[in-house]
């Protein structure tokens, strides 16, 4: 059963690669009883191959992917099946594409230092190599009006804080 207000129908957890979006998003979705989706699962194969080669995606590479994610959000909202989506959404224009004209979409910014995120990336298996971390931070436009999640905190502490802020 959802514990967030009915006005919030979707939450986008955004941040650079390695910031813990998936882990945080899965835990938040479990707490809320919502569906979880990882935007990485919606990247077309050429995008994943390009990143695996250490090449940063262009806006042209990202646009169809962002449009598909907007569609996913819209479908969940229309079906009244709340969704937590983990998605880098590094630039404002990407967040604008994701949200479009949808009402009830909250944004959570998984924020952390480059050093902490680099340490995390070195310990995981993922198609995004550590070599692209600097390009992620160069692309990042920190959001305004988002709920901030300090990733130095344990997930067990962050999730209740997020739920409380989503329910305000």
From TrEMBL:
Record bears the keyword Ribonucleoprotein: no
Catalytic activities: D-gluconate + ATP = 6-phospho-D-gluconate + ADP + H(+)
Keywords assigned by UniProt, alphabetized: ATP-binding, Kinase, Nucleotide-binding, Transferase
Keyword Chaperone: no
Enzyme class label: transferase
Record-linked Pfam families: AAA_33 (PF13671)
Pathway(s) of this molecule: Carbohydrate acid metabolism
Record-listed E.C. numbers: 2.7.1.12
Family (UniProt): Belongs to the gluconokinase GntK/GntV family.
NCBIfam families according to UniProt: therm_gnt_kin
Protein name, per record: Gluconokinase
Native organism: Deinococcus xinjiangensis
Lineage of producing organism: Bacteria, Thermotogati, Deinococcota, Deinococci, Deinococcales
């Amino acid at each position: 059963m959802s514990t967030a207000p009915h006005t919030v129908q979707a939450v986008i957890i955004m941040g650079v690669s390695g910031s813990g979006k998936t882990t945080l998003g899965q835990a938040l979705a479990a707490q809320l009883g919502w569906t979880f989706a990882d935007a990485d699962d919606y990247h077309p194969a050429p995008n994943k191959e390009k990143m695996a080669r250490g090449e940063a995606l262009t806006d042209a590479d990202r646009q169809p992917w962002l449009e598909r994610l907007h569609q996913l959000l819209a479908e969940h909202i229309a079906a009244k099946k709340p969704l937590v989506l983990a998605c880098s959404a590094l630039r404002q224009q990407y967040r604008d594409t994701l949200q479009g004209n949808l009402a009830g979409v909250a944004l959570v910014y998984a924020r952390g230092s480059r050093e902490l995120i680099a340490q995390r990336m070195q310990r995981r298996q993922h198609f995004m190599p550590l070599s692209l971390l600097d390009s992620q931070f160069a692309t990042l436009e920190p959001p305004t009006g988002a709920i901030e999640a300090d990733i130095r905190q344990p997930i067990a502490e962050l999730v209740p804080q997020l739920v409380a802020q989503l329910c305000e």
